[in-house]
Batch of 2 targets.
Target 1
Amino acid sequence: MKINLKIWRQSGPDAPGRLVDYSIDGIDQSQSFLEMLDTLNEKIIKDGGEPVAFESDCREGICGNCGLVINGVAHGEKGACTTCEVRMRSFQDGDTVTIEPFRAKAFPIIKDLVINRSAFDRIMAKGGYVAVNTGSAQDANLLPVHKDAAEAAMDSAACIGCGACVAACPNASASLFVGAKISQYTWLPQGQVERSTRALGMVKQMDAEGFGDCSNHAECEAACPKEISIANISRMRREYTKALFAEQGS
Amino acid sequence: MNISSLQPSSVLKKLLTGITGLSLVLFLIAHLAGNLTMFAGPEVFNAYARFLHHFMHGMFIRFAEFGLLAFFIVHIWSGISVQLSKRKARPSRYAYAGNAGGPSKKSLHSLNMAISGGIILLFVVVHLINFKYADHDAIGTMTLQDGTVAVNVYKLVVQTFQGSFLLVLFYMAAMAVLCSHLMHGIWSAFQSLGATRPSTIPFLHATGIAIAIALAVGFFLLPLMVYLMRGTFDADALPAAHAEHARNLLESVIRG
Ligand code: HEM
Ligand code: FES
């Protein structure tokens, strides 16, 4: 099949960018979207051009590295999947596809479609962990966790930190990411000790990174490859409010 | 409580928008209930207005007005600051805007909250000029059945709406905009307050839309009916004549 592409090209962080037209023939429907871009890059290299920079690692939907805005939708229109899971069979022969990077001030563009997501790492560093002593693992049954709590914690922990929530949000808010990361610990005994400092610290860092505020559009949940619910954002707000009134050290 | 954390964070701003927004909605429900007494005629409506102004020696209305003003200001400030953050957070816009569909609640209503809010603000100013700051001495009074004397606000409302179809249209348009603001606003406020769970989100979203429509239709009806039903809403009507007309109107509606 033949695909027409409009791809965002930007040579460096501060360089101006623009959409460039490409056309590529002989694409197989069973190819993945990223394989289609690989094919395009081989052609560009053969013609002596600069290949399109884009990111990927696992190519099976678990690392969260890939992330493109395809026809205005983060990770494409299929829903509940990452860009690497998008197949060319979801397009028609002759389609024109626009590919842009995730756009947010807090995710500066490095080159073309590659963005810097280290803002998420800095948020995680403010409480997205449990400060336990390392050493030999204790017996798992010493810390009973209700089945429902374990399930709920896992639903939040399914977040792979890809940043599609930010890309999809009309306000470029990181609320879904931060909500999921705060939520996952609320269900578990290990998460209780740092519960308040985590909520306050992560929200503060989220604001400092320059993400926008949330308007409850719920577009993030729709774009999330792991279908993380906006109920996590609601929980983040409860945790934050409780933390405001909590004594130090609780 | 940790004071440094009281600098309005993004979460705190949402709490403020939500609390003030929901309080304003509660006010609207009470205001609508009060306004609908217009249909019961001048006696009931004027008595209701008199009650509001004399309850707790007039302290109640002053306190309520002050609270409303404060809530309005906080709501506008927090709402607008959310909108401003959005420009800063995405300096370069997408060339192609799409919708992910599914559970998304992004809509023209949710995207244009600042515009609908701005129109509501304009409406509130016009509305206050029309009624609160109208010349109350000029309209005269009415002696209620229990002998107390009340300002004839009924007459003021009837004269205002019957005097200008353009004004009636403006009121109706403003109510459509209010409807749009609240179709996203009501459910959104619950989400902002952290009062939602995965299972309640679809219910709250649907209920919010229903309340928004009910409120808007309620407010929408009054100016329109007053304008159209000149026989029923007569500025100089005696209470009994109004009741008679209202009963006839109701009967004809019931008979279809
Ligand atoms: C005076 C003009 C008004 C302006 C400028 C205004 C502005 C806004 C804005 C910009 C938002 C969206 C905030 C966001 O993006 O999250 C909002 C939300 C909301 N507004 Fe208004 N508004 C106004 C009047 C009203 C009135 C009169 C009511 C109630 C009857 C109301 C109820 C709400 C509610 C319930 C929300 C949702 C709160 C939330 O998401 O947390 N607004 N308003
Ligand atoms: S490349 Fe790992 S999730 Fe797509």
Target 2
Amino acid sequence: MSTVIGQPVRRREDARLIVGRGQFTDDLKLPGMTYAVIVRSPYAHARIRRIDVSRALAMPGVLAVFTGKDLEGVLGPVPTAWIPPNADLKQTVHRALAVDEVRYAGDGVAMVVAEDRYTARDAAEAVEVEYEPLPAVVDAWAAVQEGAPLVHPDAPGNLALHWTAGSVDQKAFDEAEVVVRQRFVQQRLIPNPMEPRAAVAWYDPGTENLTVWMTSQNPHIHRFLLSGILGIPEHRLRVVAQDVGGGFGSKISCYPDEALVAHAARTLARPVKWVEDRSEHFMATTHGRDHVQEVELAGRKDGTIEALRVKIWANLGAYLSTAAPGVPTILFGLIVNGCYRIPQASTEVYGVFTHTTPVDAYRGAGRPEATYLIERMVDLFADAIGMDPVEVRRKNFVPPDAFPYTNAFGITYDSGNYPLALDKALERVDYGGFRARQAQARQEGRYLGIGFSTYVEMCGLGPSEVAGAVGFQGGLWENATVRVHPSGKIQVMTGASPHGQGEETTFAQIVAEQLGVAMDDIEVVHGDTDRVTMGWGTYGSRTLAVGGSAVAVACQRLIEKGRRIAAHMLEADADDVAFQQGRYQVQGVPGRSVSFQEVALQAHLAWNLPQGVEPGMEATANYNPSNFTFPFGTHVAIVEVDPDSGLVRLERYVAVDDCGTPINPLIIAGQVHGGVVQGVGQALWEGAVYNAEGQLLTGSFLEYAMPKARFFPPIETDSTVTPSPHNPLGVKGVGETGTIAATPAVVNAVMDALKPFNIRHLDMPLTPEKVWRAIHGKGERQ
Amino acid sequence: MIAERFRYLRPKDLDEALAWLAESQGEVRVLAGGHSLLPLMKLRLAAPQTVLDVERVEALRGIRLEGDVLHIGAMTRYHELARDPLVAEYAPLLAMAARTVGDPQVRNRGTVGGSICHADPAADFPAAALAMDAEVELRSRAGKRRLPLREFLLGPLSTALAPNELLAAIHVPLRAGWGAAYEKFPHPASGYAVAGVAALINKEGGAARAVAVAVTGVGPVAYRAAATEEVLTGASLDAARIQDGASQVAEGVEVNADLFASADYRRHLAQVLAARALRAAWGSD
Amino acid sequence: MALAEEMVKIAVTVNGKRYEDTVEPRWLLAHWLRDRLGLTGTHIGCDTSQCGVCTVVLNGRAVKSCTVLAVQADGGEVLTVEGLARDGKLHPVQEAFREAHGLQCGFCTPGAQMLAYALLEENPHPTEAEIREALDGILCRCTGYQHIVRAIELAAERKEAKA
Ligand SMILES: Cc1cc2nc3c(=O)[nH]c(=O)nc-3n(C[C@H](O)[C@H](O)[C@H](O)COP(=O)(O)OP(=O)(O)OC[C@H]3O[C@@H](n4cnc5c(N)ncnc54)[C@H](O)[C@@H]3O)c2cc1C
Ligand code: FES
Ligand code: FES
């Protein structure tokens, strides 16, 4: 019987957050705190002729100014942590502060530390840097052309990597009944969690221990990488991420900045705080997406897709960020076929250096880029053969009886029932009724459109063996310790590092369910390398599937240990003792039972334990999943396009998601809402734009359009439940489905609305002017 | 995020404000609602030596009838304007524009005087005030002068305000019963007007006896669309006539272009908004 | 270090308690609340006055505390998220945010709640459209706003039930 799993339990983390008692990094105040500001290059590409820090240093209250030269031989380079095999990856050097040359507008050139934030800012303005501007290249396509300015001398042609997967027989295209080709631009996005990045570092010269509080999605990975950069052994380094105000991928990466703060704290023997300004975030925190994609699809007139060929140029920015090389390759290239059975498929990826902010994971990381292209291609194909896009999808779905299904790239989808989610969505939106309404509206000069996205994604990262095989420089298992105190109160230590996803609640639900104890008796601890043994963090929708499974496995271990103790207490055979709803019960003898928490007390007292049972009640599980998980579903967008202004209005949005067994439907809905809104953001508004000199023209919330509440109708959510067969909870993950599914659904809807104008494709974001120009045949804006 | 240092002065009344304005050395900036000035200072795009906070100057407050004009103190905040009964009666257009400014917090701080003196090319209020034929009342230690708003607004972030002058109030003629509408296409990020059109129509006996159309976001600063007004004044505003008038709303204007909207598109948008505003002010939809 | 003559004395009532301090005129109210009073519930999310996560209530109205100088609050009354609960009891807005899952990372939440508080003081029964318009004043990257809207509707219902 399920009691707490699947319930909309109210979140426990909220108790502190709604009263303003969260502990975000900038909230920390240590005695003797000092404040750092990083001086950043205003140029995208320039030689540093001279840096004069004397004026800054002379200002009262200024404690130190560091430049790249000061750090040579002191701080190691900032590494990338994903080295895909057979990709000829150019691991160029990324220094914590630039020496001689800056490679993007935002590249750090100096750091000032002062007694307070105001003085630090003043001093940063007083650092004089003389630059010799050099030609820059910002676009991936342009960067690989002959004669393009080089970002790194040791990466000829600006090629950071070249990677291929799968194969397609040219015959499939030569002999195809229908071939559809399209070039897509996946524009660059800026993650913009509402909390900017921040770090506080404190060094204890006595113990030589260094603590870094920081905005991290994965404190253990940060500890590992920072240890290398700083030359401080891991066992003397503690990384703490208390409350983190969103990440969306941008707080996975290891940046120079946190290392600089740590170094300053070590050098000055004072605590040092650094908080990014939003403008700095725009420049110096990793961006996402940014592909140019060329896609070819071969198919038959009856709607069968026979082959898919994908070639992309992925802009990686000026340096290889932590996970950057893996995002447009592994996380993208292996699932470009989406939820369709496509016998032949191939992906070719050029990863390109440019004079722009480094690009790394952004909510969905690779999978939105893949889903967008296949979902758009299916619509274009449907158009080409005059078939309903829904029918083309249905015809090519991996059928429910084909699971586990291995796609053309060797990825095995765990479970799924794609038609079921599609049917549910169709019913909700009354597809037939909509088409009639659309036809009617067109008569009146109103343009409605409907768009589908029947997505599948690969998450729950992941099997560590696969991580190794694909070059990820870490494991992807997860650690959990469930510690039962003598009083029966329980602490759960998890290596996942939630920052908004609510695992303090859902993990407690898992434990409450498994051990049959009250939610109030359970606390979930995360985000501290000194309190949690090990962990790989929160990203890739892995927290519940991997971290939650670790918790479940640890609980099972406790139950088994408890069973032996309980049997001993109840003078029964362990095989006769059942564990139900928190009690060990001698089967068939109703009165003879003992609670889990009573057993835990006995385990601690150890006055009378059965032979061979160790005292204490704590279990640790290191759960290594056997596969990824594959959430799927159908999202439907209905839009109206105003032909006068080109404005797209989202009229309705229906999301049917299958994330396996639901643990907490309220939290699932929240994840879907947030993800969808971000996904719609990419479709309609968001986009980072550089000018030819490498200046970011969308460098603040004044230009970069974040989704606002008033742009949206209520999002309608629904679900199907197809448990994942290979983890103990049956869960799949729902953190990224929104951004993965929503973008193509909305773009498909707009293209559907624009059918009467014979517009084949428009690249995102579908801003009013772009749509208006297309409608009125005005060509692209020059 | 952090402004450069400055000297802070907070006059208690108008005389003190004018005296300090006359006497202060170096660059002095008046601080009203602060929602244009402080953002600039935080980014160090403005760095006045002295900031003169006029919030407590009583003479800059209040909305009252003075004969045949409505007197609106410079320190009147948008939220006050949006709810004021006199404004609702005699100058509803101003309230309409005020309600579209930024967000609730901005409307709680931003002022009429600040918006006019800042002369942002994409600001809403100046367009509405222009359509209302507002006059500005300027004060300095030397005395008082009045100027039509259209002569006060000179260009982007540029006005006829003298360095030692304060905008004390605006005066708007009473327009009770006139049809009024403000149509704005907000930038999805900043919320400012990509284009905004204020329309005011005095309809009598089936004809537009007087028409005022003012445009923001489109030109260097808010302006009156003279060609449009000319086409429409005296006529009955059927759909075709409105279209004709609206099509001339950016006549002779050097139209702004930015990342979000080219000049072509912005001109077109102004025309679309003008037609909508005119229809609404005329009462045809 | 600021020179003595540049500093200004202020007295501000924050969450019902009077604070006197000497501040540099350029200090933002947000920084003063956070750094001087230790009221770190008020967050800072941008440097262009757009995001609203710094929202507090000043003299009864929602303001962005990053766009108000501490000296401008002199003589005024400030309510921050820390002052929303009274006598150990959550304000209906807070209860509703929790009940409706109106927060995820919680970073925008103090600002969102203060904005909601001020909205309901002025308009006790806002429509969904009015709520969404008022939310122009806050950027939330996590929730997609839907549960924030729901929370505000719920808070309105609860406030009425209590009144
Ligand atoms: C997030 C945000 C969104 C916004 N969105 C919009 C929008 O959609 N539409 C819009 O129109 N505006 C918008 N604004 C601007 C807002 O309306 C400003 O408040 C207004 O333009 C300036 O008014 P203020 O009282 O804040 O002026 P301040 O910032 O105090 O002053 C502005 C300028 O005017 C001068 N000044 C002010 N008052 C006087 C006076 N009485 N005499 C002489 N000089 C004076 C100042 O010295 C300064 O140079 C937005 C602002 C923000 C922060
Ligand atoms: S911090 Fe963004 S508006 Fe105040
Ligand atoms: S809850 Fe994270 S920004 Fe709103």
